[in-house]
């Protein structure tokens, strides 16, 4: 988790909407913070602080919550963004950053009603390493196309080394890990298709 760095103490607008949506999802299910902590493996205090936007959640934390709520990360983030248009201009593509892990995520084609796929641009800084202990939705289809640099992707203990132009296609049932494999940043396109 990242501490809020805002000088005035006010939470980032996206983090505030995200925190409110996380609280709504928990309330819709009638769960206490303790019940959600048991289901997600995240401490009650961290969950409470994320819901109040006192911290900006990491990719790993959001992935755990998405798993519990049966959503992809893009679906969750799209619920706190404005209604997506048919044409998504570059300047309007939502960008989310996990500074702690060196991960930047641009939602090129965010989730949209009636569509099952989405397109994400991912960037990992040199040395960045992100591990997800489970998929947000079991059986999620992913296509990872490396645009620049080198990326190591581990899928259920099998590591795949990808360089510019390579594409890895998979269904995600278990743990995954994304690691910048070179001295330069890696940029990749990720197509996510709901099962």
TrEMBL record:
Q: Look up keyword Transmembrane helix and say if it applies.
A: no
Entry GO CC: cytosol
Presence of keyword DNA-binding: yes
Alphabetical keyword list: DNA-binding
- Classification via Pfam families: HTH_31
The organism that produces this protein has a lineage beginning with:
Bacteria, Bacillati, Actinomycetota, Actinomycetes, Kitasatosporales
HTH cro/C1-type domain: residues covered = 22-76
Molecular-function GO terms, alphabetical = DNA binding; DNA-binding transcription factor activity
Q: Which organism is it from?
A: Streptomyces viridochromogenes Tue57
Protein name in the entry: Putative transcriptional regulator
